[in-house]
Amino acid sequence: MDTSTSNRITRLTTALTAASVLLVAGPQAADAAGPDRVTVDLHEVHTDEFASDACGTEVVLTITGSAEFTLWRNDQGLVERELDRFPGAFVSWTAPETEKSVKTRADLVSHWDYGTGAVLGGPVTYTFQGMFFHLPGGSSAFAGREVSVGVVDSFDNGVPGVENGTLVSLVGHAPEDFDFIEALCGLLT
Q1: What keywords sit in the KW lines (predicted)?
Q2: 124 contacts 18 by C-beta, under 8 angstroms
Q3: Strands 107-113 and 100-105
Q4: pLDDT by residue (tens digit) across 101-137?
Q5: DSSP state of 31
Q6: SS3 at position 74
Q7: Rounded (10°) CA dihedral 137, 179, 64, 6
């Protein structure tokens, strides 16, 4: 699997987290009552081009369920840190031609640290912990702790947007790219 595809698979939840928060959260000043809490429904569907090419049939990636976001802001209303949970999120790969699919739970928690407050071009460190995905019947599980650093590249109503950053550390079990795609194609074809 090439680097961009690997990043998309291992950080898919990152993109969904940022996109979902941007759609539903608005600017809010710091509040002595506590952090902002937002719950959203997830429903993302797109063709996985890499898996489709590797498996020789169209493969559709679907992410469904729910996500819970907690945002802590400083006195200026800037997000300093964030905690994201996905208590009911699932990742599915489906091959419409063969009518086969694989569904796994995305049992993740992510922590985001924006330092003294998120600003355009400012740093962010984010950590994912838990089960990214598991393909039944093999060792193609991706679980553990992944730490990355990036920069804030956009804002929507005061909430930072972050593109995939640079992986700093990965501890746990990550299947080799070939093992993952071989196992996935085996289940879908």
Answers
A1: Signal
A2: no
A3: unpaired
A4: 999 888 889 999 999 999 999 999 999 998 887 787 7
A5: -
A6: coil
A7: 170
Distance CA 18, CA 84 (A): 10
Burial 110-131 (b: 16+ CB within 10 A, else e): bebebeebbeeeeebbbebbbb
pTM of the predicted model, to two decimals?
0.70
Cα 99 to Cα 9, 60, 95, 106, 183: the distances in Å are 22, 11, 6, 22, 17
Sequence-distant (6+) residues with CB within 8 A of 164 are: 7, 8, 11, 14, 15, 148, 150
> Is the pLDDT score of 172 beyond 90?
no
Range of the domain at 87: 3-188
Domain count of the chain? 1
Judge contact between 78 and 117, C-beta under 8 A. Answer: yes
Contact by Cβ (8 Å): 113, 123: no
Q: What b/e sequence results for 149-167 when a residue is b if at least 16 CB atoms lie within 10 Å of its CB, and e otherwise?
A: ebbbeebbebbbbbebbee
CA-CA distances (angstroms) from residue 113 to 95, 116, 122, 173?
38, 9, 11, 24
